[in-house]
Amino acid sequence: MSRFEAKFSALKAAGRKALVPFITAGDPSLESTVPVMHALVDAGADVIELGVPFSDPMADGPVIQRSSERALARGAGLRYVLEAVEVFRQQDDTTPIVLMGYLNPVEIHGAERFAREAVAAGVDGVLLVDLPPEEAEETRAVFNREGLVLIALASPTTSPERLRMLCDTAQGYLYYVSFAGVTGASDRLDTAAAGERLKQLQAGSRVPVVAGFGIRDADSARAMATDADGVVVGSALVAALAEAGTDAASRASAFLAPLRAALDA
């Protein structure tokens, strides 16, 4: 049983929703990434999405763009990201880790080599924002041969035909982007409209469905989780960590704990 299967099965049995925080590897410092990851798990994270810093993160808003720029300036390349996961795995062998980023670093590294090294480090899945599902079959096959899952994205503008394809091929979990736009635009979150779409996805997906984009606090997390198997919180957490300095781990815990409590209430 994969870490994804074990985690989501346990959550379902307990009647709980998944809490999936996103952080950018290397921000607010190179030294803080692993301690922050552990702090998030201690505060109730079920899966961690670890952002791979990239120079042109086109799907991200200014908060994550700036965090990526800061991390790259510190030298947080792919090798650093994999080493951080490897160190994390020395104490935690159960929390699923998803690398979230863009196709270019994978292509430069070579998909097979990337997958092999990611799995060796302890990565469970990868979410590539700019890989269209119609073009993902080859990459998914390469990843799967090495034991790596390719996470799929769906959005409000995804066509019915594409949704069926995504539901049929989804692995790990299906990430529903709650509105068309970039990360961090919490003013565009419409939980009622997203809820209807999430119900459709739940009915057709063979894997759990989690919702992200626009979730910034306990209230929005609880509202979005009504019709999803879990929620992803990214920009608000990244913003909270941006100026944390050496206090990053405790800041991460303080941010996430109220969301966990809201989901469990």
Count, helices = 12
Strand content: 5-15%
Q: How many strand segments?
A: 8
Largest sheet: 8 strands, parallel, barrel
Could you say which structural class the secondary elements and strand pairing correspond to? alpha/beta
**Helicity range of the residues?**
40-55%
Description:
The chain is 49% helix and 14% strand. The chain has twelve helices and eight strands. Strand 6, helix 9 and strand 7 form a beta-alpha-beta unit. Helix 10 packs across helix 12. The chain is globular and about 45 Å long. The relative contact order is 0.18. About 3% of the residues have low confidence.
Structure characteristics:
265 residues, alpha/beta, eight-stranded parallel beta barrel, 8 strands, globular
Q: What's the quick description here?
A:
The protein has 265 residues and is α/β, with parallel strands linked by helices.
Topology:
Elements: H1 3-14, E1 18-24, H2 33-42, E2 48-51, H3 62-73, H4 78-89, E3 97-101, H5 103-109, H6 111-121, E4 125-128, H7 137-146, E5 149-154, H8 160-169, E6 174-177, H9 191-204, E7 209-212, H10 218-225, E8 230-233, H11 235-242, H12 248-264
Parallel strand pairs: 1-2, 1-8, 2-3, 3-4, 4-5, 5-6, 6-7, 7-8
Helix pairs in contact: 2-4, 2-12, 4-6, 5-6, 6-7, 10-12, 11-12
